[in-house]
Amino acid sequence: RRIMRVVDMMTRKVKTLSDWERIELPSELPQMRRFRHLPVLDANGRVVGIVTRADALEIASRPGRPSSLQVSEIMRPAIVARETDDARAAVQRMLSAHIYALPVVDEIGALVGIVTDSDLMSSYSGARASLAPIDVVPVSDVMMVDPETIQLDEPLSEAVTRMHKGRYRHLPVVDGAGKL
């Protein structure tokens, strides 16, 4: 069986931000609907960070924050992959760092693509080159064990705060008895 590489599943067309540009929050949040992960490039086109839609939402919900922020103020350092990296190693890098995307860079750090959790799901499901047939991958291999939950009556701001701090994109909602 052929070893899958990042290049086999990455997306080449990537929306990016520049580290020097300014972003208006929350007015620019609707434009981020299509992009969950935006690699940030410096003046030389090298990847220096990443802005996620979840990070932008959390920052936009902070009381007293300025309406305009420089991208370099809201980005987090990017964990990257190379096209030749083994796909399973990339998956492990994402899982261990609790992130959902790896910008893919060349030998000088210039962006050539991005591999996201959606790309990985497409690979596992057979919609793209396959890592493993989805019918042989047990849910227990990919699920989060004992996820944090939130009660039905807690405020949305608490959910956003927990999701940002825990780097979650989803937060199961439970009733007083703990039922989903």
Summarize the structure.
Helices cover 24% and strands 20% of the residues.
Explain the overall architecture.
The chain is of the alpha/beta class and 180 residues long. Helix content is 24%, strand content 20%. The chain has 5 helices and 10 strands. The protein has helices spanning 53-60, 71-74, 87-97, 117-125, 156-166, and strands at residues 17-18, 22-24, 37-41, 47-52, 68-70, 81-82, 101-105, 111-116, 150-151, 173-174. The strands form 4 sheets. The protein has a 3-stranded mixed β-sheet with strand order 1-3-4. β6 (81-82), α3 and β7 form a beta-alpha-beta unit. The radius of gyration is 18 Å and the shape is flat. The mean pLDDT is 81.
Helix and strand sequence: EEEEHEHEHEEHEHE
* Biggest sheet architecture: 3 strands, mixed
Shape by Cα distribution:
flat
- Mean of residue pLDDT values: 81
Structural class: alpha/beta
With helices defined by DSSP (H or I, 4 residues minimum), what is the helix count? 5
Give a count of the beta strands, DSSP E runs of length 2 or more: 10
How much of the polypeptide forms β-strand, as a percent range?
15-25%
Low-confidence stretches: none
| Helix residue percentage | 10-25%
Spatial gap, N to C terminus: 40 Å
